[in-house]
Amino acid sequence: MIRISFILLLASIQFTFAQKESFELKEGDIIFQDYHCGPLCAAIAEVTPSYENRGYTHCGMLIFKDNHWLVFEAISPVVCLTPLDSFLNRTETKEQNTLARVKPNYEAAIKNATTNYSKYLGKAYDDYFIPDNDLYYCSELLFLLYIEDGGFLFSLEPMTFKRKGQTHFMPEWLQYFDALSCSIPEGVPGNSPGKMSLSEKITVLGDF
Question: What is the third-level CATH fold of 21-207?
Fold first, then answer.
């Protein structure tokens, strides 16, 4: 009985490992994450579409450094490198983390991102979600890194903090920006993890 239990446990561990390692990771890959940080994350998911309506609220880029996989990300309070396991362990299921890869014909953009990311390390997180302030939110950071032929690989669109079809701001956003003593950047060009996950310039590989 003990031997059978041990074999079953070993098989379970191997299966879990195989699930997580079913992709060949590459530097420059993007992880989209359905990160549950409370009402604010729920508000982000509600106003931004995403791949298969997954409700992504965060994203980061894979970097291989000192024989370890790390995630380059902008998460409060600063832009940092986070061990991959720590990044994934923020979520409860593997379906909350989706791996995507910039298509091979944009190799120059991948190289630019993986070569120049370090200049942003230690920069403060952008709580205000506005451009050109030397503060950075997660998808803004990746937008700035992936550059192809002198132009940005991903696009910006006017941001909204209103539910679809409504004219008033969501109460979560009113409370959030009121606490920051700043106006809501409605209509300001920006991007989001969800919008980025819909880009035709990436291939979604799956959950892990």
Answer: endopeptidase fold (from Nostoc punctiforme) (3.90.1720)
Beta-bridged to residue 10, according to DSSP, are none
Q: Where in the chain are the domains?
A: 21-207
Interatomic CA distance for residues 40 and 176, integer angstroms: 8
CA distances (Å), origin 94, targets 13, 45, 88, 97: 15, 18, 8, 6
129: how many CB neighbours lie within 10 A of its CB? 23
Token digits for 15? 């299966």
Residue 91, SS3? coil
Full-prediction pTM beyond 0.85?
yes
Angle at 33 between CA 85 and CA 134, to 5 degrees: 95
Going by C-alpha positions, the residue among 99, 92, 73 that lies closest to residue 35 is 92
Torsion of CA 178, 50, 193, 150, to 10 degrees: -120
Q: What is the DSSP string of 27-88?
A: TT-EEEE----SHHHHHHHHHS--GGG----EEEEEEEETTEEEEEEEETTEEEEEEHHHHH
* Whether 56 contacts 32, CB under 8 Å: yes
pLDDT tens figures, 34-93: 988 778 888 888 888 999 999 999 999 999 999 999 999 999 999 999 999 999 999 998
